[in-house]
Amino acid sequence: MIELSELSLLDLLPDNLRTDNQVRDAAMALDVKMDELTAKIQRVNLFGRTDWTDEETDELAWQFHVDYYDPTLPLEQRRELVQQSIPLHRRKGTPSAVEDLVTTIFGYGKVEEWWEYGDDPGYFQVVVSNPKATEEQAQQFIQVVESVKRKSAHLRRVVVLDSAKGIHYYGVGTQQVDIITLRQVN
Fold first, then answer.
1. Which stretches of the chain score pLDDT less than 70?
2. Number of separate helices (H) and strands (E) present in the chain
3. Helix %, strand %, coil % for the chain, to 5?
4. How far apart are CA 185 and CA 122, in angstroms?
5. Domain 91-162 belongs to what architecture?
6. Every domain of the chain and the residues it spans
7. Would you list the DSSP string of 7-42?
8. Which pLDDT score is estimated for 1?
9. Confidence (pLDDT) at 52
């Protein structure tokens, strides 16, 4: 099979036209343009690659109906959202879809259903660990969860795990004592 990138118009010409200088020069000039076009064709397969520009990422997000897409997010997060869009649509309405989307945008996220933490049926909570949580991020978080959760489920609360690094000292000591009892004998 002939690769398009290796194809020359001279190879396609019959022998009688290859000897004509004007036709040969025209074919060689067109080869340059064909090479440029071939390079552009390689970039058409947007979903087969992940090095999208800002514009391409935004276009793909629109094309694949990314449920939660914010053009102000960092480029790497937006690329990941686009890559996950089709698998996420397949699992939309499931706790794993909520977890995946929350993890992509906020770092860590775990969904706990009502029976796992003792709540009323139909409720769930999301456990995250993002110490830089602000009011704006809280509103953003609710939008993210609402975009993929099932409509019959209700977000009860968001639990933010706060962890701090520190040094813990543990010590164990033992003491051995001889007990001497003195009794007075009469």
1. 1, 4, 44-47, 131-135, 163-166, 186
2. 8, 3
3. 50, 10, 40
4. 81
5. 2-Layer Sandwich (3.30)
6. 8-42, 46-90, 91-162
7. --HHHHS-HHHHT-HHHHHHHHHHHHHHHHHHHHHH
8. 67
9. 84
